[in-house]
Amino acid sequence: MDAIRTDNLTKRFGQLTAVTGLNLTIAQGELFGLVGSDGAGKTTTMRMLTGIMDPSAGDAWVLGRHTAREAEALKEEIGYMSQRFGLYPDLTVMENINFYADIYGIPQKNRGERIDRLLAFSNLTPFKKRQAGNLSGGMKQKLGLACALIHTPRILFLDEPTNGVDPVSRRDFWRILYQLLHEGVTIFVATAYLDEADRCNRVGLIHKGQLLACDAPDRLRSLMHGSILEVQTSATRPTAILIRRSLPAVSVSLFGDRLHVVTDGSREIAATIEALMAKEGLPLAGIRAIEPSLEDVFVSVLGATEQDS
Ligand SMILES: Nc1ncnc2c1ncn2[C@@H]1O[C@H](COP(=O)(O)OP(=O)(O)OP(=O)(O)O)[C@@H](O)[C@H]1O
């Protein structure tokens, strides 16, 4: 049985189609990342998969249960940590977990050991008496995760779980996710961070409600045609404009203080760029061929889509 299967899953809000004909199959034990920018349709997809929102068209099955017709039974088997996961700031860590244990009807006699384990697992044992409102951002997310796991779900849905969390806590959070994966939990995570997408077994790129690409990160990278030159300069914008104007066949994107130039692989382009920059008096700190990142792949896929539309 698949963990998740969707067939033409679609959601419309009036004139707007937030998710368009999504076809997706996710195996049990997979760590799947749904990646897209704000408004791409990630939350809407997740709400349909967790049975919170009915689709306008199409179907989805999670652990064999139909998400619209069997929503109530499904909710018992899944964990869902939404973007605005409901923690109670005036309650302590322990009281919040107990609150969710009540919601899921976990009998008192089974709770102690389970809660201790979740606290240890999320490194929250020393803070169990602290009010949730006084936890750091990273700890709040870990508490949210502990609450979403109280009923030992077989599949976990996480909507941008590390948004706004510092890099160290993010790494910590991901360590916990790998541990869960090791225990056989299927994880479906929505994220806008491409370094997090790279940690997934498989990644789906969603843009304006459409799934544009879906594969393992390495395979997505190998789809990328041509090769990439990284141009390091303190004048990224004028350099980007110059390259676009002079070499219309290449594509250029900005990555902080660097430019990534997607070329057809020919060797002369680096020399041409150097010469163009020298002529315009633009400072060049370095130019070298690099391996494409997931970000390059997505910029390239999105670029192709925008051209088509
Ligand atoms: N209840 C709603 N009514 C009307 N439009 C909605 C509703 N929910 C979402 N939308 C619209 O659907 C589109 C997809 O939104 P969605 O929240 O799924 O995106 P997202 O990828 O999760 O982005 P974010 O990270 O910003 O939540 C957006 O244009 C959003 O404004």
UniProtKB/TrEMBL annotation:
<dbReference type="GO" id="GO:0005524">
    <property type="term" value="F:ATP binding"/>
</dbReference>
<keyword id="KW-0547">Nucleotide-binding</keyword>
<protein>
    <submittedName>
        <fullName>ABC transporter ATP-binding protein</fullName>
    </submittedName>
</protein>
<dbReference type="InterPro" id="IPR003439">
    <property type="entry name" value="ABC_transporter-like_ATP-bd"/>
</dbReference>
<dbReference type="InterPro" id="IPR017871">
    <property type="entry name" value="ABC_transporter-like_CS"/>
</dbReference>
<dbReference type="InterPro" id="IPR003593">
    <property type="entry name" value="AAA+_ATPase"/>
</dbReference>
<keyword id="KW-0067">ATP-binding</keyword>
<dbReference type="Pfam" id="PF00005">
    <property type="entry name" value="ABC_tran"/>
</dbReference>
<feature type="domain" description="ABC transporter">
    <location>
        <begin position="4"/>
        <end position="233"/>
    </location>
</feature>
<dbReference type="InterPro" id="IPR027417">
    <property type="entry name" value="P-loop_NTPase"/>
</dbReference>
